[in-house]
């Protein structure tokens, strides 16, 4: 499989190219949120913002989407998340026999796959008939498939991973970054200042690795990686890891939380949100001490796009709003917040307050 040729080097996400699109999309999204609102509003960060990373990724892949296409995608996303419950339950669902033992779920999966292929084929057909078909990522990727660079199954599953598997992942990462900034108002103020100083060059700011914006992003993802253990991987060969012999086909997971919260590297305040700590650390030290987008050949294909998406959203959010925590949550602390139990990534239920800076 050559995913990077189909979606990567040429077609996909180069940070500098995508940031203007992401900044505009974030601005538009936030405008919609405040349409009916005046004064201070209280919202659940995850619920209110989850459509942004989903729709931004979708519009990047498919070019501007009609409202009906957006709704169809969103509805398929919800079906995919429901089916993910069975994937995580494992057991019988790992084997073909589930077709007979769990016919209802099997039927739902078959219907989902059919609808998903169908929607993609319709969109490709429509974009090919448009004035600039080759400018669309999905058309380029489809051409790679037709040229035999990637199989149809791999293409369809990768698209599904980009959009649906990432719905909870991106929601989790974005909402925690917002929540930490809502809690740490001093850092929020400093970050807003950095954004305002760079108003004319937000694109460059989003691409920088030595900015407070970047440090806030890393510190947030350090404290709340999207899973506390990685998705299992196994090798058909014997491996030696840290002096231990790992027999072939043994599932191995990485304990991300113990890397990201390791007090020996991160210090006694390792569970505190303190982006300033990253200022002193060389990026090379982070290589083995921070889990963010995975390692090696399974590393996230959308890393640069995801990073730009989160940063563009924060830039637009902080330009428009002062964010805070409702008094009750502030007293109780964000760690006492509850989580949704019906998602594959534990999505926080924490609420934040938004006060429009234009009202001041
Ligand atoms: C902040 C948000 C995100 C985080 C933290 C994240 C993290 C990860 C991680 C850790 C993996 C490796 C999973 C494994 O062990 O198999 C992964 C895989 C992947 N991610 Fe992301 N991801 C994010 C957003 C995105 C976005 C927005 C896209 C698409 C535009 C994307 C596309 C993919 C794909 C296609 C894979 C599978 C790569 C492969 O198996 O070759 N991700 N992601």
TrEMBL record:
Keywords: Heme, Iron, Metal-binding, Monooxygenase, Oxidoreductase. PROSITE patterns: CYTOCHROME_P450 (PS00086). Heme binds at residue 300. Transmembrane segments: none annotated. Its cofactor is heme. GO terms for molecular function: heme binding; iron ion binding; monooxygenase activity; oxidoreductase activity, acting on paired donors, with incorporation or reduction of molecular oxygen. Pfam families: p450 (PF00067). It comes from the Eukaryota. Belongs to the cytochrome P450 family. This is Cytochrome P450. It comes from Talaromyces atroroseus.
């Amino acid at each position: 499989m050559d995913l990077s040729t189909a979606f990567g080097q040429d077609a996909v996400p180069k940070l500098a190219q995508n940031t203007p699109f992401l900044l505009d999309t974030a601005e538009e999204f936030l405008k919609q949120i405040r349409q009916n609102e005046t004064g201070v509003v209280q919202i659940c960060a995850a619920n209110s913002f989850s459509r942004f990373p989903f729709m931004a990724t979708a519009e990047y892949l498919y070019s501007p989407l009609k409202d009906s296409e957006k709704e169809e995608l969103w509805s398929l996303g919800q079906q995919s998340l429901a089916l993910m419950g069975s994937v995580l339950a494992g057991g019988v669902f790992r084997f073909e026999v589930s077709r007979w033992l769990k016919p209802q779920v099997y039927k739902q999966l078959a219907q989902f796959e059919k609808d998903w292929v169908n929607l993609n084929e319709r969109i490709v057909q429509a974009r090919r008939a448009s004035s600039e078909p080759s400018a669309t990522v999905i058309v380029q990727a489809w051409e790679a498939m037709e040229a035999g660079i990637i199989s149809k199954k791999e293409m369809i599953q990768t698209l599904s991973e980009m959009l649906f598997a990432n719905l909870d992942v991106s929601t989790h990462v974005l909402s925690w970054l917002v929540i930490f900034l809502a809690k740490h108002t001093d850092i929020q103020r400093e970050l807003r200042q950095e954004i305002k100083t760079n108003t004319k060059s937000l694109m460059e700011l989003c691409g920088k690795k030595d900015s407070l914006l970047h440090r806030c992003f890393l510190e947030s993802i350090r404290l709340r990686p999207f899973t506390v253990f990685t998705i299992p991987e196994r090798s058909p060969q014997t491996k030696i890891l840290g002096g231990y012999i790992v027999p072939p086909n043994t599932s191995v997971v990485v304990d991300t939380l113990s890397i990201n919260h390791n007090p020996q590297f991160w210090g006694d305040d390792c569970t505190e949100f303190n982006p300033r700590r990253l200022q002193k650390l060389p990026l090379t030290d982070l290589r083995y001490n921070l889990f963010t987008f995975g390692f090696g050949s399974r590393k996230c294909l959308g890393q640069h796009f995801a990073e730009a998406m989160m940063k563009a959203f924060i830039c637009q959010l902080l330009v428009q709003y002062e964010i805070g925590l409702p008094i009750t949550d502030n007293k109780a602390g964000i760690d006492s917040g509850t989580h949704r139990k019906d998602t594959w990534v534990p999505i926080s239920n924490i609420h934040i307050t938004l006060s429009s800076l234009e009202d001041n």
